[in-house]
Amino acid sequence: MTTHADQRTVFVPEGLAGERVDAAMSRMFGFSRTRAAELIAMGNVHVDGSLVAKSDRVAAGVMLDVVFPVETDPLEVVPEIVEGIKIIHDDDAIVVIDKPVGVAVHPSPGWTGPTVVGHLAGAGFRISTSGASERQGIVQRLDVGTSGVMVICKSEHAYSVLKNAFRYRTVDKTYHALVQGHPDPLQGTVDAPIGRHPKYDYKFAVMADGRHSITHYETLEAHRFASLLEIHLETGRTHQIRVHMSALKHPCVGDMTYGADPTLARRVNLERQWLHAVKLGFEHPETGEYVTFESTYPDDLAHALEVIRDAH
Fold it and tell me: What residue stretches are annotated with the RNA-binding S4 domain (predicted)?
């Protein structure tokens, strides 16, 4: 994520004749030899028009060309229209969207793909300025690999009201998950603390010293290889449903990160976890009226469910 911008050309003075290129650059530009070596390794340094190695020596009077890449901030919100994001509801206080798979809610280090906040900026939505700059207006998140309904705040008042509603768990969040096998009992509650996985920093796990996490589930359909569950979250931890279902030994179909069967995933042609935020209900921050918003299954999940229903 770099763009070449600042180029500087200098002539090597007598006093640096015979020095290594990295040492000469360090003296002339006032940065470390390590930084000089990085620029040389990137192919950004030329002496008299030719690429150099850091151990090459410079002569007096040669022309030293250095291009300094301008680093882009990984947290910068880049306005861009993202295909597949649907606007379910829009008013002065909130905008409710249907988020497709493969879209992050906001920018983060290491993520270079599309984001919800980038789409809203690109589509001309003004959202609340509360929260960190890359997360303005965001009161809830869905994983990149999870689709469905979510709300973003446009006014400062809506942000503070809904932030509290999510914090005090007065928002009704309903998910559907297709999980492997048949949970026993058919409906129940998982109350198990979740923390970062001790070995893999991209995963979470049930950990004794983790954060309090509660998931309620009930079976809607039971099929030969998998069950369709309706899930209500009492808490909102990262990967909560995926971790809890995996802990029950019934991971979401297609969720390789948390132990799903790759053969079954291939059979239903799924490249992500079968998990969808189907419904969101809360008191509207301006009117106080209870509102609900829903999202239907996207094509890949609908297809996978049909394959499971037809399997005998």
Answer: 19-76
Q: Which residues are catalytic?
A: 143
Q: How many residues does the chain have?
A: 312
Instruction: State the pTM of this model.
Output: 0.77
Considering the four listed CATH numbers 3.30.2350.10, 3.40.630.180, 3.40.50.150, 3.90.950.20, the one that applies to the domain covering 169-312 is 3.30.2350.10
* Mean pLDDT for the chain overall: 92
Q: What share of the chain is helix, strand, coil (3-state, %, to 5)?
A: 25, 30, 45
Q: Write out the two tokens for 28.
A: 């002339």
Instruction: Please give the helix or strand (H or E) that residue 10 lies within, else none.
Output: strand 2-11
Q: How does pLDDT run across 232-276, given as a tens digit for each residue?
A: 999 889 999 999 999 999 999 999 999 999 999 999 999 999 999
The domain made up of 2-71 has a fold known as 3.10.290
d(CA 10, CA 62) in angstroms, rounded, equals: 8
Helix-then-strand count for the chain, H and E: 7, 15
